[in-house]
Amino acid sequence: MKPRKLHIKSYGCQMNVYDAQRMVDTLAGEGFVETTNADDADLVILNTCHIREKASEKVYSELGRLRVMKEEAARQGRRIDIAVAGCVAQAEGGEIINRAPVVDVVVGPQSYHHLPQLLARAERDGRALETEFPTEDKFAFLPPPKPDVIRARGISAFVTIQEGCDKFCTFCVVPYTRGAEVSRPVSKIVDDVKRLADHGVREITLIGQNVNAYHGEGPDGRTWPLGTLLHRLAEIPGIVRLRYSTSHPRDIDDALIEAHRDIPAAMPFVHLPVQSGSDRILSAMNRKHTARDYRRAIDRFRSLCQDIAFSSDFIVGFPGESEEDFQATLALVTQIGYAAAYSFKYSPRPGTPAAEMQEMVSADEMDERLARLQELIDSQQSAFNRASIGTTVDVLFERPARNPGQIVGRTAYLQPAHVIATEAIVGQVLPVKIESLERYSLLGELACPVPRLAAAPETMPTTHPSETTMGA
Ligand code: SAM
Ligand code: SF4
Known about the structure:
It is a single chain. The longest helix has 24 residues, at 363-386. Helices cover 36% and strands 22% of the residues. The chain is of the alpha/beta class.
């Protein structure tokens, strides 16, 4: 049978990137192969994000474009199915069905393992919607990716270890769209990571809405925190780098900080969103921590791991944010010194407590504050990047770069780094002498002879390559 083609357009966070891959894995069993071209797809899935208004709006404009495409295909006697998945599907499923007749399937983020059945139902009944949180664990039903698919996805992979959130920050839709906090058992995560490592993956980013709230069942029957899980995963042959995202300041514990000190594979770069530097605003946001608690968490990390660097998320213009509150945010950024950070204008989300708050900050003020914050963050990021010029840093090489002859990889701090080399270095961690900086990318040259290692994962080093190449 001719394979059917599937195109997924994913918006938003890393969880959505991961979910999109698992949808591809699920539908591979139904004879679907992925295509990057929506125009020749038999099934188009929009994997949506509801975190800010702009992200949600994109769905409806994209559906308008898909309607034209679907009608044109129908004139040519070809059927195209359109599915909306992700957090907009969860939050606005009924509305999508009413507003967009072009949509055949609506499926929430906890139910996409049912996609094959939903597509069959849509073919039979016209349309299908599933946005209930199912009682079963979707991970038990998701087929593992095939070896060639793992290889094609590259040497760095995401693995979900935790989903949902019980924190209920007043601005955030996640607890409503992703549901309550659930951690996957250690054994399942270890199986996933082993399979990825067996097929060439070298770096794992553990993901979860609140990843460091992880409390999964360990093989010893006890509850394991993230720090203990990192120790176990670092033992898996082939895995040379471990990262995790996104962390909440309240859930930083000693086991996690010590893991950074004790595990060479635990990368010294932590994304730790604070949102605001003002305690008044943090309290209105229901963040359950103060600016002082946050600084303390950073200090604890820095006292044990001298090379650690941080990134963060900020919201400007939360209801009631005064110039004084905003100044407190700037002061916190100045004091911490970030390697990178994301900043957003507050966007009221229907159904969240903050959406009912009255004292809205004007659009002009929000724009102005965002520009000031981004200027400060940019200057810190540039200074951080410039500081690597002249130093030798470890780079995990990922793929050929756009510039012919160059290979691109990432430093421990996720800075892209380019060298002139052959593809044989893909998958290896090698020392690079950094010579210059081009916007956010580092340029350098290999500071060691290229070890004679074939790119095939079977023959790749199973120890942390930086241990064997640093002194080369
Ligand atoms: N769990 C993470 C935490 O506690 O920081 C954040 C996850 S959220 C998916 C990613 C980021 O989106 C947040 O850190 C926040 O900065 C931003 N965000 C969430 N809701 C927002 C809203 N209503 N308006 C603007 N930004 C928002
Ligand atoms: Fe949203 Fe707050 Fe949960 Fe993060 S901790 S996902 S910001 S509710």
